[in-house]
Each structure stands twice: as C-alpha cells, then as structure tokens.
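Step 1: inspect the first sequence and its tokens.
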Amino acid sequence: MIKKEIISSISEKSKIKNEVVAYVVENFMMEIKNSLIKGENVYLRGFGSFIVKERAEKKARIIKSNQAITVPAHKIPAFKVCKSFKNAVSIKNPC
C-alpha cells in the first residue's frame, strides 16, 4: 500500500475530502520526522515507536580496493512495532 492509497482509504471511510486527509497525513509524517531530527522519540500506543538509534563507531572494508575504513558513530531512525501489533500480524500470516 502506498501513501496515495492510504489517503484514499481514510477519505472514503471518514467521508472527508482527499485534500484534507492528504494535508493531515503529510503533517503527521513531518511531525514524526522533525521529532526524530531533534533526537526525540515518538510513541504511538497500540502501534509502535519511531526511535533514534545510535550506532557505534566500527571498522569496515572497501572490497574493491581492500582498504580499511572507520565508519564513525552515527544516529539512524528506526521503527519498533508494539507487541499487540506484532502478534496480530504473526497470527494473520503464520510461517
């Protein structure tokens, strides 16, 4: 499912114009992005958490030139799904 389909689905279910739903969805995503840029985590109960993870400095190798490099410590955005959400997905799709 892509963003456009999500907007259309919400619009149909709520009887709100596509433009209004698109505006809300865009602003929702921007708020999450801005919070993560500031280093703040975003917690959505019953859904999951958008968190900022810190990666430690590590040694790596460029395979083509066999050159060793150091990848500096850095932060990355991540999503951690909540337990009830994870269980709901695994029940629908058993391995």
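Step 2: inspect the second sequence and its tokens, then contrast the two.
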Amino acid sequence: MLEDEALIALDVEQLCRDHGAGEVAIAGNLREAREVAVSYDAAIIDVMLGGEPTFDFARSLEAAGVPFVFASGYDKLDEIFADFADVTLVSKPYAGADLIEAVAESIRKRARSADS
C-alpha cells in the first residue's frame, strides 16, 4: 500500500488484515515502495505521496501484472486517469467496504485476463 498519511495507512492495513491479507507492506513514499522486498499480490496506491505523483510506479505494477486500485482525494484528473482506464479509483474519504471490494474486483479482473 502506498499512503503517506500514517493514520489512513494503519486503518487500511487493519482493514486488509481483517479481510484475509497475510502480509501488508506500507510505503509512505516512492523510495520505500521500490525498496519493499516483497512480491505484490495487489496494491492500493495514493495518487500523490508527499507531493510526488505515483503514476510511474503504477505503470510498473501494471507491466508486472499486479492488480491495483488508486485510493485518493484526487478524483478530478480525468486526463491522467485516462491512462489507467481499467483501474478503479476509490475517492477519499471512502468506506472500507468500498475499498476492499475495489481491490477484490481488481484481482478478479487480473485473473480473468490471465486466463484468457
């Protein structure tokens, strides 16, 4: 999970664990995200981390076939999100159930495309 707000990150970490996630890696900036020595099964990405856009990192996940969603207060960037037409944007503030469903759907979509 890429999130620079500590309280949000901790809440989302617990939410993921409550819904069966075994390991949850939290990165508060892109350097940490790149250094995480885990293979991502899925990701939740804030659009901006400390003023730095996360789109290149998102593209690297997309290229690696990792399902992900954007969770962000930036929901009026249509021209940028157009590059990620198949990626769900969950707008902050969001309900935990909405975020979990979006992640689950991104995993299902990736599995369907892998089976094709």
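Step 3: confirm your contrast with the notes below.
The radius of gyration is 13 Å. The CA atoms of residues 71 and 94 lie 8 Å apart.
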